[in-house]
């Protein structure tokens, strides 16, 4: 886009924002960025929450404008102005989405609403709730909970810089999943801005839309301003450990046994396995890292491990007894004695080049299957796995309780993991091909009809994108929609059609609207 066109859009948007929000000139100009008006600030804001360097190069499409609201009325004005000017709008909270969908669009002109200024976290221990604005990061949420209580927590992810808005609206899970389920299972209210620019809460938006934004991806329906979360109880003493084994140290047998134990053991225990190819003493191998979070002390944990998984040979010396907040530091690969204030650092990690995919395993993998998987990891040499157990309370929550359907019947979830640091297009293609080869290889071991995918780990490579027309969008959207949502997809489409019939909130894998010929039974969203 030429600088003249950019100037024109900036001027039009600036004028519209002033008219709608009634803000004096300095306030609006301080939240509006353009590559031609305030280029240095624009670049800083754009790059500050890009977590995947694949989407931080010259060829990546860039937003014409970036808006960083500091209050709800700014968000309302942005929606109204974007609709009025016919400009495509994207919404970013933390920027951890693996394919950059919150800040990259292939539509000709688009603007970015970056929520990072809206990051207040208010914890009320008397009601055991927290109101968290969408631009907050998980680390901020954990710090504020720990500031108020030693016996409360919240079941969400292990990376402190993940944005609350995307994480929770996409489902959200962490090390307490087997005890407390997904993050969305503990959302009791929300404030949103809808496609008409109205601020709504649970009561005024209605239960259908409230259901949809708890796991269906909020950006398909509205802009989530904040979530009200119900906190969960945690013990004063938590126990964590990290034990590493190579193929030569019986890793294959241990992982084979793990799949029997991890989904069925005491639900206070979450035991992840990371499988990574490595070279040790010039020999290629696979290292299996067993990482635990137990809601209780080490004595209780050792009793459980000695009874159900004595082969791992966990000892007292392997265990660290920590507070819940310290367990969050441990799982974020930091020393658990690190001052808790580090969780407030919104730029804790530098961006890397990364590739991700997911699968669900519903049937135990035989010993020879694990042997072949380890061999394939050695052969490929770069791509690895994060294996995350399910079971526990996940067996008791219905598939349609929220849009997240992958509950009962799943033994564990696989996250395909590949990071690299080289800025080389050829290497990118090579590594991308490794993930494809491994994903194809795993077909016989994972869920089928459909092959399930976790929404927070969006995958464009294997399951496609939406064709952005009303008639074609529904059919192309179903391809990925049924993998993410299974039987919940059609309900999400009906909610979308009712609340946003013109498909204002859209991106490459958003929920589509119904074709106009199929809308007879869809009741329009009531005007409040």
Automatic annotation (TrEMBL):
GO molecular function, one term: FAD binding
FAD-binding PCMH-type domain location: 59-234
Record Pfam families: BBE, FAD_binding_4
Cofactor names: FAD
Entry keyword set: Disulfide bond, FAD, Flavoprotein, Glycoprotein, Signal
Classification via PROSITE patterns: FAD_PCMH
UniProt family annotation: Belongs to the oxygen-dependent FAD-linked oxidoreductase family.
Name of the protein described by the UniProt record: FAD-binding PCMH-type domain-containing protein
Origin species: Ambrosia artemisiifolia
